[in-house]
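PROTEIN DATA CARD
Card holder: Clavesin-1
Chain length: 275
Origin: Sipha flava
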Amino acid sequence: MSKNQISSSEWKFDEQRDINEPLDPQLAIEELRTLVKGDKSLKSRIDDAFMLKFLRARKYNIDKAFKLVQNYYGAKDKSSLFTLNGPSKYKVFLETGTLFMLPNRDHHGREIYVFRIENITPEIRIEDIFKINLMILEVISEDPETQLAGIVVVADFTGFEWLKHYQYLSPYYAKKSAEVVQENFPLRFQGFHFINEPLYLYTVYSIIKPFLKEKLKCRVHFHGNNFNSLHKYLSPSILPKYFKGTLEFEPVTWVRQFLNKEHYFEEMKQYGYNK
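Structure generated from the sequence above:
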């Protein structure tokens, strides 16, 4: 069996072992829930599924998982960037195919998140991109398999034009994104792959690199126009043709499913730190 044919049960077992998941996680869930309830200034979801995704993101270290819960809600309290009103207002933009999830996981069970700058429309600001990114992460973080395996990001800068696209390479938002990845969000970010990246991206990366943990630095890969380099990490069989893959795919179905999550974001509004 090749590495691209690893069965679902195999990668799940490997990931559960990697994050120290016990056979019965209920005790850890109860311990974390007790800590969350003890923060009297915080109104948080406390259901098992919500607790579990924070435990998995911190490999069942209870104290670190609790800190992550606090950071998650703290970020929402400190900045309107983390106020998410749902995806419906971005329907037209989402249908451009700028941001989406691919339908198949990689051989490690990771979901693949794609950004294609050439499809971006000029009325969309970088704040909107940031919020849409967060909403997508919110939705996929509810999936138990994604909690175990994490995600891989593919950012395609084919068609980059300075006057049209420079705002989307803001060092400020790059640093904000790094904070989400490292400190504020219950998800395992397993790889970042950049395609046809402009030279300025290296400048932005050099600015935020000192703030990145060593393990995250090792997960950042610049491929330029070398798709064979990308294929060392992601099989062509799960990539669309514009990544020199063989997958026939349009993100319309995914967009429809994502737009149906409006109720999730309405429910989220009731939680957070007391004003």
